[in-house]
Amino acid sequence: MAASVPRKIWQTLGAIKTGVILLILVVILSAAGTVILQRPATDADEMQRAYSPQVLRVLDALRLTDVFHSWWFVLLLSLVSLSIIAASVQRFPNAWRFFSRPCKSPDESFRNALPLHKLIPVKDEEAALSVADRVLKKAAFHPERIVRENSFSLFGERNRISELAVYIVHTSLLLILLGGNIDALFGWRGFLTLTRGEQSSQVKPQNGSARNLPFAVRCDGAGQENYADGSPKRWWSDLAVLKNGKVVLRKQIVVNEPLVYGGVRFYQASYGKTGKLDRLTLTATPRDGQSAKDLTIGLDETLPLDADTTLRLAEFIPDYVVSDGHVYARSNELENPAAHLVLESKKSGQSINVWLPPIPGLEQNESSPYTFEGKDVQMAYFTGLEVSHEPGQWAVWAGVLVMGFGLVVVFYLVHMRIWIAPVRDARGQLQLWIGGTANKNKDAFEHRFRELVEKIESELKISVEAGAEAPAAVLAGK
Amino acid sequence: MARATVEQPPAVTGTTLVVAVGLGVAFLLFMAFLNVVKSGNLLNDSNLLYAALIFYSGAGTLYLAFGITGTPAYIRYASLATWAGLIANTGAVAHRWYEAGHPPFASIYEMLLMFVWTLAALTLIAEKKFKVKIIGTVTMPVAIVGVVLMQLLRTDVHPLMPALQSTWLHVHVTLAMLAYAACALSFALAMMFLIKDKMKTETFLAATSLFSVATYLGVLTRFEKWGGFSVIAWNPEEKSEVFLSRGVRLFVVIPDLGWLLLLVLAAVAAPLVLYLVWRKTQNRAFLNMANRAVFLSILLQVLAVVFFVLRARDGRYASLDADGLFPTSLAASPFILSGLVSGVFVSLLYLLLLWRRSDLERMLPTADELDRITYKTIAIAFPLLTLMIAAGAYWANRTWGSYWSWDPKETWAAITWLVYAGYLHMRITRGWRGRRAAYFAILGFAVVMFTFFGVTYLLPGMHAYA
After folding, report:
1. Closest chain A residue to B403 measured between Cα atoms?
2. Cα distance between residue B308 and residue B259, in whole Å
3. CB B415 to CB A397 under 8 A?
4. CB atoms closer than 10 angstroms to residue A257
5. Do A38 and B406 lie within an 8 Å CB cutoff?
6. Would you list the DSSP string of B294-309?
């Protein structure tokens, strides 16, 4: 008896009732997952606002706040997969027998059991069968002669694959679930933020520690294009993949058009201001009357102004405000910029603080040998890249393609079979027995069957007439 | 007028037709009253859509008129009107496409446009090819509700945000609309099947009353203290709902409207109660009373729609959550309005069935045939649903780097798919035919409607812009 327990479990898993109950559970639980706020997507504050502490504790304990990643949902989907496998394995041998060894010769009991059949009186077995053969061939039924010890007949069929369609669909479903499982186990998602010229091989994952890629990604430029009304039209980033310091791939990515390298995909996800300076362009005019010159300087960069003086950009505040003798940044927007320049003299070792615009209490602009004027400010932008690795997605797409094919077969390909055998009725009259069956869409098949029978009848008549003339023609020829 | 028809329902009179057409015209004037006709270029998509609305309403009225008078000729005119509506609808789609520079699949407005178009096209196919002549009686009201909704939702052409600039999106949405329209058709066919399958008219009474009661119960979740009724505040300049903070909408309270809706709830509940009393006592007098109560409830429901529109159309109301008066607009409450309008339609369809059942049955193919056609439409809808989900997953994968993220819309699309998968399994392996299959098809369409509307408005998620 002990051995029958696994067997019973196996049988239960394969039962259609089990499958339906599991599917109903999936439906109810995933519906719950859309109604109850879900954890990673909703932040903790919002959760606390939406639910009372007790309710939240219960929901958390039951994993109802992260349904789709909870162990019981995974278990449920695994059970669904098992149930599909069990059902397919249990039913497949029968279907396969049907598929690989079709019943081709209609014996007496088969003929009596088939509801759709017709009898046509004929004179000659051989002639009748060859006419039927021709008609079936024309209707793409691929007829074959079946010769048995004491009978011979004709068998034709179309779309036999339709018998296996369900298994094709179920296989595709398993492929999709397999792909999803692979991704759940081995896939990861993360984020990478780059500014122009920056490169990185570290991806910040959504949870856990940083992930090192075996290659680096450099951003050679990023930008945004707008519609006339100011709403964003396009974000782009020029990316370069570096392996061992060498560029191996370059691509401009936009939303919907990722970069793929080594199974890792980089998506354009966000774009924005860092609040930091990229380049500042200044006009420096010496006080001694020499000609002015334009300089472009980055943060913490030092440029020589003349043989003695160097210029350093010590600070840049995009939106400054002065309070209690200190300079603060109000925002990251380029609203009210201030630049802190430091002039250093090699000879005297003296340094002078220049503020643009002059900020009383901090600036020493008057003692500087140069006057400065800001000409242009280029702010640094970052490009946010969503990074993902989904090794299982190929199984998913393969599954989708197979499913598309399988569903077409399930719904639109009908397995039609036709048997034709010469028989003698009770009075010894020779007749052509024609029977047919289809595995779905039976009413349409019935119509088609009737048409085929009519065709055979009319062709038989013609051949009989032609047969009557034939000997005469032969004689005439002689 | 219609009171008279209650007393002598089957009378084939020209007056009833005139009254029916008059109702249709009144409905259209009522819509015009909502300022839907825009000035400017005569052939803009709004005006074309209005023309489509006129023709669809005409078709719907004629289908109803056929129901009341039993004159087969009206069916011919009805399908002509559907053709005209379809042409106007095509024009609206084309204009929208031309104006926006991209196929019109980007917002819920544009998707409704495609949905209604597909539904009208499929109605004509079902009528011509499968000879289901009165299918429009069910599908046309759905189309009309769709067009009314579109009139309320904003119609400005928005430039496409970057994530939506993808061919896959268009493939996804086209497939979705085709699939949903096929589902709508299968629903209509399942209803026809139930009529032809001699399902008792009383059962339809129970079902339609239950629908109305559920609708009004849903609407009355907005009932406030002292008979108020809260609706979402609307910012007319930005043409958007008013948000207090991210995801939290500001509600304003329309005083006294709640009492009226409560009264109408009582009116629509009355037939249900009387039906239950009839079931208990088996006294047919109660059933007759229930049928009269349906008629009365239609009048009250129309009254509710009118008052709701009058009060919620514009005007400034106080809010419980913020000081001051805030404006509101019908555009802020499309689902309440469509719920109320569908309530009227459903009750009207019941009356049609009550008065003209034998004529309806005469116009329908056999029950077996209807059962088969229902299955065939689902056999079309299911692969479309599958491909729609696959195209959406592929698009999401190219845009967000993940083909499946259990976002509510995705999950509900999967649920829809599972429900129809269940239907197919029961039909193929368990041989479910007839009634049970028809119930399943109806359930499937209910889930589709929830996925299409409910998820967008009730549940948060990535599909927020759609």
Report:
1. A393
2. 12
3. no
4. 15
5. yes
6. HHHHHHHHHHHHHHHH
Which residues from chain B sit within 8 angstroms of residue A30, using beta carbons? 406, 411, 414-415
Give me the residues paired with residue A419 across strands.
A155, A435
pLDDT reported for residue A36: 83
Of A27, A233, A407, the CB nearest to B162: A233
In contact, B106 and B159? CB cutoff 8 Å: no
Q: Contact at 8 Å (CB) between B299 and B6?
A: no
Strand B243-245 with B240-241, pairing = unpaired
Instruction: Give the C-alpha separation, B265 to A136, whole Å.
Output: 65
Least confident of A142-151, A462-471, B41-50, B253-262: A462-471
DSSP annotation of B223 reads B
- Angle subtended at Cα B392 by Cα B389 and Cα B396, rounded to the nearest 5 degrees: 135
Is residue B310 classed as helix, strand or coil in its secondary structure? helix
Contact B64, B348 (CB under 8 A): yes
pLDDT digits (tens, 9 = 90+) for B276-329: 999 899 888 888 889 889 888 988 998 898 888 888 877 788 887 777 788 887
- Among residues B348, B346, B406, the alpha carbon closest in space to that of B5 is found at B348
- What's the DSSP call for residue A257? B
Percent of chain A whose predicted confidence (pLDDT) is above 70: 95
Residue of B nearest to A66 (CA): B406
pLDDT band at A207 (very low <50, low <70, confident <90, very high): low
Domains of chain A plus CATH, in order, are 4-95 (no CATH), 102-159+414-469 (3.30.160.110), 187-275+383-391 (no CATH), 277-374 (no CATH)
CA distance A110 to A423: 13
CA distance B99 to B93: 10
Chain A, chain B: beta-carbon pairs less than 8 Å apart: 110
C-beta atoms of A256 and B415 within 8 A: no
Residues of chain A in contact with residue B163, where contact means CB-CB under 8 angstroms, are 255-256
Domain ranges of chain B: 2-199+357-465, 215-334
Question: Of A339-343, A459-463, B5-9, B375-379, which gets the smallest average pLDDT?
Answer: B5-9
